[in-house]
């Protein structure tokens, strides 16, 4: 029974090591893809800026009430795009960072438990 428990711990440790290794292996690729995504969203942001500028240009040709409404809309639209982009990138980065940290901590705990168990088994057999 003790042997089965030890085998289970070893299997769990190996599984955690594999998981951490996979995250570390793919993290570089994820960073490159996120960088490409940021560049693409930057182009989207540029289009949003062009739209805001065009709305402001149109607003300049209209009556005072419509001008004020269009300018307020353009301002709020620009704020919304800024906020949306910042939240999206923040969430994706935090998710990746937290997952790696959790996996490393789980691995350290499993290795420590495994070493402690192996040490007790050696003392028991001696």
Summarize the structure.
InterPro entries: CBAR/FAM92. With 126 residues, this protein is mainly alpha-helical. It is built from two helices and no strands.
Commentary on this structure:
It contains two helices and no strands. The chain is mainly α and 126 residues long. The protein has two domains: 1-43; 45-125. α1 runs antiparallel to α2 (64-125). The model has no long low-confidence stretch (mean pLDDT 78).
Distance between the termini: 19 Å
Helical coverage, percent range: over 70%
Estimate what percentage of residues fall within beta strands. Answer: under 5%
Any low-confidence stretches, pLDDT <50, length ≥5?
Answer: none
Number of helices: 2
| Count of distinct structural domains | 2
**Which descriptor suits the 3D outline?**
rod-shaped
The residue-averaged pLDDT reads 78
Number of strands: 0
Major sheet size, sense and barrel closure: none
What is the structural class? Answer: mainly alpha
How do the helices and strands follow one another from N- to C-terminus? HH
Give the radius of gyration.
27 Å
């Amino acid at each position: 029974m003790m042997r089965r428990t030890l085998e289970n711990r070893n299997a769990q440790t190996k599984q955690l090591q594999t998981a951490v290794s996979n995250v570390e292996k793919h993290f570089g690729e994820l960073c490159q893809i996120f960088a490409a995504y940021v560049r693409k969203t930057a182009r989207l942001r540029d289009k949003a800026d062009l739209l805001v500028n065009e709305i402001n240009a149109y607003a300049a040709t209209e009556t005072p009430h419509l001008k004020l409404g269009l300018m307020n809309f353009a301002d709020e639209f620009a704020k919304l795009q800024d906020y949306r982009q910042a939240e999206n990138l923040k969430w994706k980065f935090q998710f990746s960072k937290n997952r790696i940290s959790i996996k490393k901590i789980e691995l350290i705990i499993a290795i420590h438990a495994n070493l402690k168990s192996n040490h007790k088994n050696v003392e028991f057999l001696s």
